[in-house]
Amino acid sequence: MTVSPGPGPRTGPEPERGRADAIPETGPEQQLARLGGSWTWLLGSALATLVPGIIVLAWPDETLHVLAVLIGLYLLVTGVFRFVSAFAREHGERATAVLVAVLYVVAGVLCLRHPLQTIAVLSLVVGVLWLVTGMLTAYTAVAAKDLPHRGILMGAGFLGIVAGIVVLALPAESAFALTRLLGLWLVLLGLVELIVALVWRAALRRADSGSLPGAPRAV
After folding, report:
1. Which stretches of sequence are listed as region Disordered (predicted)?
2. Burial level of 211, CB count in 10 A (0-12/13-18/19+)?
């Protein structure tokens, strides 16, 4: 999941520039931070999780090879979203976020390079990633006390933790069963991320309109 960094309250948005002034445009790093901090980037991340889940559930006759390719592409795309989003975090949290993004990309490459791997290996890769990222998301929700709608982010983290535990503790015995399990969790996680993106958009709009005492920092 792509998650929000801890909020950094500002003195208020400037009418001329809106939320675009949250991060000065002084270089590539700032540009990536602005992109990763936009609600549309969160929306893209949500769709990158939701769409593969729908495809997996709607395609009833996938082989393990096809499933591994779909999961590999999902991990690669999610890794890219997470890498860019990491630049919107505080420097103290950025290293961890980049590390998680790298893990996603590495896992995705492994799935694509070895598409005929066993069901157990595929379950292990996805389960561990969901468990770790779910814990990090929950930690963010607990630590970022000024984050709007922390409960939704906490729910997203909890769902990721449960998904990871279920995939790891209940390994599927066939590609068919694993397909249904992974597809279901991808859809659930994608829907939660979609809600987070819409909530973040609403928070940013309220901040720009001056209805909030301090503008939230985008993800």
Report:
1. 1-23
2. exposed
Q: How far apart are CA 149 and CA 133, in angstroms?
A: 19
> Does residue 2 sit within a domain?
no
Q: Could you give the number of structural domains in the chain?
A: 1
**Looking at this protein, which amino acid is placed at residue 60?**
P
**Chain Cα centroid distance, residue 207:** 23
Q: Which residues pair with 14 in a beta bridge?
A: 18
Token pair listed for 121: 């290996």
Q: How far apart are alpha carbons 143 and 189 in whole angstroms?
A: 21
Does 16 reside within a domain?
A: no
In-domain check, residue 217: no
Written as six digits, the tokens of 74 are 């999902």
pTM of the model: 0.71
Domain boundaries, position 181: 27-208
Closest CA relative to residue 52, chosen from 33, 67, 35, 65: 67
